Amino acid sequence: MSALESTGAETAFDHDVVVVGGGPAGCAAGVFTARSGLDTAIFDRGRSSIQRCAYLENYLGFPAGIDIETLYGLMHDHAETAGCEIVPDLVESLERVESGEGFVVTPQEGESVTARRVVAATRYDGEYMRGLDDEAAMFETHDHDGEEHEHFDKSYAESDGRTPVDDLFIASPYGDTGYQASMAAGHGTRVGITLVEDVRRERGLPEPLANHYDWMRRERELDDEWRDRSRWREYVDTQLPDDHDLEEARLEEIREQEIDRRLATYLSDDEIERRIEHGHRRLLEHIEDELILEAAREIDAEREMGGE
């Protein structure tokens, strides 16, 4: 159990996080929140800008490009593997819970759900957010051919996704972060990490420990000194501010959970090899069987020629 999973009280919400939009920005944010132990649902059935692309040729990692259907399959597979629930429904409205904390998310077809935090990751439509804040701040009016048109203000959120509405984050691919899919994914990642760090602070982690990164390391890089939990306890204690107000029991809980989290990022050589093979096999699931068989026949033919 991660430090994010232990709150000392049962959650009053259906989800810790609801992401509105399942493109590169939304899925990237969801991967990071779900991997951090937050119950995350991604609603995806709106107008997606990336689905208007005929073929994507500049998304890093695909030297011959990739079709949008396959990319979407990979993104959603990744999000679900990380722990996200993909909900194929369109969000029509967000409202504050009566208590003022959290949101009611109302979709077009399914039942409404509640969420502690919401990440808006849709580019074209912000109408579902009307009423959450002063509309003069959230929406702006433009004059086009003599007619006034109102649009969501693309500069409403901070660069890290925070907004004037508590617990509402914007990962929408707008402006400088928006017109390339890889930039949208990067912005979604930043917003996801921002949200995770906010939760870590809320749950009692002092500022130096609230900083979050998701990174796997080789176990052989862990020397004997840092294999000892007592050394990690010393390190964690040095990161605490002198004026922290954590009770001893909560401090010990946070300390041990943080040590568990950090040690779990070190992988043995055998585990690395297992994950490499598993990762390759998962990629094959998104490639047409006939292409795999064709490649296998070509490999067999090359091997036979090499043996002559």
Can you lay out the helices and strands and say which pair or pack?
Layout: E1 15-20, H1 24-35, E2 40-43, H2 68-82, E3 85-87, E4 91-96, E5 103-107, E6 113-120, H3 135-138, E7 139-144, E8 147-152, E9 168-170, H4 181-202, H5 207-210, E10 217-218, H6 224-227, H7 229-239, H8 248-263, E11 266-267, H9 269-284, H10 289-307
Parallel strand pairs: 1-2, 1-6, 2-3, 6-9, 10-11
Antiparallel strand pairs: 4-5, 5-6, 7-8
Describe the structure.
With 308 residues, the protein is an alpha/beta fold. It has three domains: 15-202, FAD/NAD(P)-binding domain (3-Layer(bba) Sandwich); 207-267, no CATH class; 269-307. It is 40% helix and 17% strand. The chain has ten helices and eleven strands. The protein has helices at 24-35, 68-82, 135-138, 181-202, 207-210, 224-227, 229-239, 248-263, 269-284, 289-307; strands spanning 15-20, 40-43, 85-87, 91-96, 103-107, 113-120, 139-144, 147-152, 168-170, 217-218, 266-267. The strands form three sheets. Strands 1, 2, 3, 4, 5, 6 and 9 form a seven-stranded mixed β-sheet that branches. Strands 7-8 form a two-stranded antiparallel ribbon. The protein is flat and about 75 Å long. 28% of the residues are buried.
